Amino acid sequence: MGLFEDEAYDQWPSKKNTVLKSHGRPPWYGQDGKRISDAFVIGIAGGSASGKTHVARQIVRSLGNVPTVIILSQDSFYNELDPEQHALAHQNRFDFDHPSSIDMPMFAACLSDLKACKQTNIPIYSFTHHQRLKETKYLYGASIIIAEGIMALQDPGLRDLYDLKVFVQCDSDLMLARRIQRDVKERGRSVEGVLEQYLRYVKPAFDNFVQPTSKYADIVVPGSNNSVAIELIATHIRRQMTGRASRFRKSMTCKPIDPESGSAVHHPNLIVLKQTPQVKGIYTILRDQTTKKQDFVFFVDRLATFLIEKAMEHLPYRRKAVETPIGAVAEGSELDVKNICGVSILRSGGPLEKGLTRVLSDVRVGSLLVQSDVKTGEPLLLHVMLPVCVRERHLAEDAWVFLLDAQIGTGASAFMAIRTLLDHGVREEHIIFVTFLVARSGGVAVLARAFPRVRIVCGAVDDVLRETWLDGYEPGAGPEVLAGAPGTELSVDAGRKAWIMEPGMGQIGDRYYL
Hints:
514 residues, 2 domains, elongated, P-loop_NTPase
């Protein structure tokens, strides 16, 4: 699959900030749960209209099948203007080409967060109105970040963040012609205004501040006819990305759970529903392949409610006195939580959502899409849609999250989902993983070791996680294409092997939705 543009984050005509997605984001962490590789950051500087954005897109196009790429424009980080400066800007008499016009600390902070695999929220700037908008745009999940702007190499703090520094060299007449065409068409300026601003501010700034930064560049790229330079850069990036690969899914399948206690070794935070006759009866119905769909859905919803109610016991509460209808005072308790939400690992986590909304009627629910790479068997993060209380880091610190998935087999999807929440600032002890089944010999013990403060609430523990060939696969016949619902118990190793929980409940997402 080639790269495609997911969303343009600048709402105004100059759409420079973009997220480009391909086959998903592979693990950026090790078996201990800690980050082992940063995002690869490229800084591209050059004169106004030299072709920086075009070069960035050419690099992405040359890379082919790569994980998510973010192109981040320095133009989004212009300082907010006071009324006097705002008036001058509309008269083309404000110097937007001086380094002081850029909020360098904010630009560096956003870039630093993205490089460290965290989320950030970038400002939205209107060139037509010469001001920042009140809202910001959320960014997360890039393996490659390209930061471009005339001052991209000017600030030492920014230069320290780059893994590769590029300067786009272009003829001044060509830059002026491009600038006139762009500003008249996209930013509503007059030719006279563009020329006045160019001669007064743009050209002096290029000579004094922009051109001198070319000495910091690792490579200087022509502003046109630059295919050879682009291919050299793409080859270097591909080599760097290959060296940062993390693969450990198969090693997660051989860590047993203590059969006496029903808990993972060294995992006091695995909570299993008490196996009452009612719970055993529900699992008997759900495991039976002859159960009709309407009955399967009914009992899944019922079991999901039991699990969420059990998970609710692990939230903080405070004492509260209330007056009853007869005028008496009763001592009780209420939730002591600022923000609580659910995050479902699509799509097998979906069957748990109704149980969550039955218990917490106004809860916000987000989602993650994690699928297996058919070549390596490793998980790939394809989609992130999180509630506001997680996207905003100052809210995430106090948020509690119910993480929903049908089962934990190898645990690779669960591992990636937990790491994603931690990247957003959610506290480890504020994550409660809710699931129908856990494999005794699966990856739950690896999860426990990496994230010892995450609680896992499950309905039952299955004894076997069996390694097998995918249906229809014949050894030596070549790679298989993984079919079925994402997030189920099937996972592949190099497109050949799968792990199946026994006795299991089958493809829970398929049985629930199809």
